[in-house]
Amino acid sequence: MSAAVLAAAPPRPAHRDPQVLRWLGAYTASTVGDSVYYLALSWAAVSSGSPAQAGLVMAVSAVPRALLLLFGGVIADRLGPRRVVLASDTARCLMTLGLAAVLLATSPGLWLLAAVALVFGAVDAVFLPAVGALPPRIAARDQLARVQGLRGLAYRMGSVLGAPLGGLAVATGGPASAFGAAGALFALSLPLLRALRLRPLPAEEKLPAGEKGQKADGPVLRDLADGLRHLRGHRVLGPLVITILLADLGFVGPLNVGLALLAEQRGWGAPGIGWLLAGFGAGAGAASLLLAVRGRLPRAGATLGWTMVLGAAAVAALAFAPRLPVAVAVAVAVGLLAGVSGALCHALVQTECDPARLGRVSAVSSLGSLGLAPLGMPLTGAAAGLWGTGPVFVAGAAVCALSGAFALTVPSLRRAELPR
């Protein structure tokens, strides 16, 4: 009787599940560490070379991440996401602590910073798909939307805490101190990740105990092709990933490059950029909190399509905001709408995908924002120089609107729902 009662008992809510809380703590520590690392890297690069050289060092990480991200998804599915995240965070910890030690002893110049950035980007290409594949292995299916809301809150917290923590570390002991702080944060995630106990995949539940967790050998390209076939043949995942890629291409460049150009052209200066980013972060944080509390939103597919269309209109409106308070209010709306649509996209990927292929699918869905869009930022800046900031915002908004309209016109995606 007691076994039957336990089997029928509902799963714990995500915010009370020790497994989810361990994963959330590790993810938050890694996210704060990322922010501190990139601030330390930019400061060290600016201190060692010209602004152009510093920009090149900062861009180096994006190249291996874009080239290797899909293969990182294969590695996450083959070896298991927990093992890959542990190895990746260990590598990032050792790299940043090692660089801190070198900077304390000598001034190595830009070549070492570029080499570390290159390796860090390659490690990120493995780390990011594995992080995306972990939630279904630690939480019940009907809690995955809530987990995505918690993940969004952790990401915003990392962005808010990382910059001042990195700035304080640089002011106290220079870039070496900041790299040391980043390494300590990566180290903090390791015991939390080691304490995770993953749910077996459905295919593993029928295997003998000694065979669970083992992955089939074979060519990497075959596994990658298998993941792409899974995407292409899935009635929800295929159109969903197209929607995500279009939205990222239209959103990431104009918002990352365009906000700074807009603030400069309007005379709002650095404080103006800060207020705009704060408004966007507040809106996105509110969206994550909404999903974390509610656990799901009805008509998930239709809701993400309409929030993308409305978010595109808000992005275009930023170009015509006459005063800073108006622009900040619009940025809050952009963050809220983009936060809702983004969280729903990730939640649907988590719930619709076969967990055994989730690393590969997460890699494909992240390719736009983490791989391709950063490489297109110089083009966005060049386009703004030729035609002005307004046309760049409007063009980005048009692509975002196209992604939302596509989601609404595909019946299988429009009718997609999150599990109760």
Helix content: over 70%
Give the low-pLDDT segments. Answer: 1-9, 204-214
Secondary-structure content class: mainly alpha
- Give me the Rg, rounded: 21 Å
Overall geometry comes to globular
**Gap from first CA to last CA:** 26 Å
Strand element count? 0
The largest sheet, given as strand count, sense and whether it forms a barrel, is:
none
Report the mean per-residue pLDDT as an integer: 84
Strand content: under 5%
Strand/helix succession: HHHHHHHHHHHHHHHHH
Number of separate helices: 17
Quick recap of the structure?
The chain has 420 residues and is an all-alpha fold. It has helices at residues 2-8, 18-48, 51-60, 62-79, 81-105, 110-133, 135-138, 144-194, 220-233, 237-265, 269-294, 300-318, 324-352, 358-375, 377-387, 389-409, 411-414.
Description:
The chain has helices at residues 2-8, 18-48, 51-60, 62-79, 81-105, 110-133, 135-138, 144-194, 220-233, 237-265, 269-294, 300-318, 324-352, 358-375, 377-387, 389-409, 411-414. It is built from 17 helices and no strands. By secondary structure, it is mainly α.
